[in-house]
Amino acid sequence: MRKAGEPESEAWLRSYHSDVGTERRTKAMPAKLQALGIELEPSPIDVLDLCCGNGEALETLYEAGYRNLLGVDMTPSPRLLEERRFAVRAGDACATELPPESQDLILVLHALHHMRDAKTVETLIDECWRVLRPGGRIAIVDFPNSPQIQLAFWFFRRQQFLFTPYLKYFGALIRDEWPFLKDYLPEFHKVWAVLTAKRFEIVLERHRLFYFYLTLRKPDGALAHAR
Asked: Domains in the chain, start-ordered, CATH in brackets?
């Protein structure tokens, strides 16, 4: 069984990096970033995309005028490792080895549930706190444990009526992610408690049909290792 922090399976990687999934994520990314309160206009801030995947967020921000961009992923796309517009490297999101207080914005987009349990999510958030400068933000999009999510995942795991290329793509992802989704979802109340702990300020909180959007801010004057 896959454990938190282990690379995804070859089947998951093939599905995730497929043209169908990449095209859809690229189209959705500008609206997703704006929903998190991230302005799509030139900014000199340092941005870290944790679990950057195929780089759709990095590319969107670069096109918007951002230049200080870094992506970290356990298994980054080979194409991204050769990218010259921004830096991408293989690494553990829970232990980035980046200098303390070196980033202004950290993105964790559809990656939190890959941590599998609240304890690992807390390790990830501790690392974000360490790496963020005072006043820096962390922007998160992921699944809540809602009735509609439970129903949707049940549907996709049945492998029936997946007629379109996107439904087949998403169904393959969910089936491969289920070993850790089944642990993450029941622990979501603990995950949410970790995310909304008082050390961070909540800048933005939105709950939509299948996702939550949460932007947190590290208070001015906070120490890198304070917990």
From this structure: 10-217 (3.40.50.150)
pLDDT bin (cut points 50, 70, 90) of residue 14 is low
Assign 52 to helix, strand or coil.
coil
Pair 141, 213: CB distance under 8 Å: yes
Question: How far separated are the first and last CA of the chain, in Å rounded?
Answer: 32
Residue 210's nearest CA partner among 164, 147, 161 is 147
Paired strand residues for 207: 212
pLDDT for residue 226 is more than 60: no
Helix (H) or strand (E) holding 90: strand 87-90
The radius of gyration of the chain from alpha carbons, rounded to an integer in Å, stands at 17
Contacts 24+ apart (CB under 8 A), 68-74: 68/44, 70/46, 70/98, 70/103, 72/48, 72/96, 74/5, 74/6, 74/7, 74/8
Helix (H, G, I), strand (E, B) or coil at 73: strand
Q: Is 34 a residue whose pLDDT tops 70?
A: yes
DSSP code, position 8: P
More confident call, 172 vs 144: 144
As a whole number of angstroms, the distance between CA 25 and CA 215 comes to 20
Please provide residue 75's backbone torsions phi and psi, each rounded to the nearest 5 degrees.
-135, 75
